[in-house]
Amino acid sequence: MNNIISWSVEDEAVIATNTDATECKRCAVELGYWKDEYITYFAKHVDRKAPEINRGYYARVKAIEMFIHQFLERCGTKCQIINLGCGYDTLYWRLKDTTQAVSNFVELDFPSVISKKCHTIKRNKQLLEKICNEDGEIVLRSGDLHADGYHLVGCDLSNVPETARKLAAAGVNTDSPTLVLAECVLVYLRPDAADALLAHLASSFPRLLLLLYEQCNLDDKFGEVMVRNLNLRGCSLAGARQCGKPEAQAQRMLAAGFETARCWDMRAVWRALPEEDRARVEAIEMLDERELLHQLHAHYAITVATRGELFADIDLNC
């Protein structure tokens, strides 16, 4: 796990967004927005975040869970999940605590992020025991972690051949029903590299559900401010021009080879959440700046793209 790999200043800024997101999630969890017993291992101390940030992360997490549930309803546990740009996400452990653990779960990110996640897993029994049961073993090879049904690998997602090799080494079966998660990932890749990755996924997996969460409507004034603020942190959105209106993002998936594609901004996602869930969340914190939350929801979207009849009817309101 001591491989020396050179990353640019911009790469380091992107890596830092993982820490920010993890801290935001821990803050929301501590306030009771949702339950996550594992987030504390990856974010030890956090300052309180603004209410609109907490609600935004809640909507994001619940929407992803909603689509994962639909995916598992259709294919059961005999399937695989690939988490691109996984960061310190805890989805694997949360699924293991339910009856929804899948046959193979593969996480990919920068090698430095993977190294830190491996280190955290090895140091904490509660994380480790979910990966390595009594008869299982963990293999650490070239900085990657491999176990029965769980793989944590470092790679450059802009390099499709390398990514394909890493997926193969992690036991990915292209014939199995597959869910690919990409949360705030493709926007950091050059458009040509992101499109090449999308085309590879669409051509490789005949039964595929892709969940893409990232910015949208970046061509308006609010979007310009978002991009400028990230640039000031040294974090360039190489794919910002691809983050237009939701319908354009859906068309991008169809152009990459997916058979169906739909995209909703987070305003639509929020309205689709059960009324009792929204009422519970709104009671946690007072929200003075409702317009700011509305603007934030208008500038993030979830895209669902599919291959194969198994997932063709997956929808926001199911």
UniProtKB/TrEMBL annotation:
GO molecular function: protein C-terminal leucine carboxyl O-methyltransferase activity
Any Pfam family hit: LCM
GO-annotated cellular components: cytosol
Gene3D superfamilies named among the record's database cross-references: Vaccinia Virus protein VP39
SUPFAM superfamilies for the chain: S-adenosyl-L-methionine-dependent methyltransferases
EC number, UniProt record: 2.1.1.233
Keyword Manganese found: no
GO biological process, one term: methylation
Protein name: Leucine carboxyl methyltransferase 1
Organism annotation: Leptosia nina
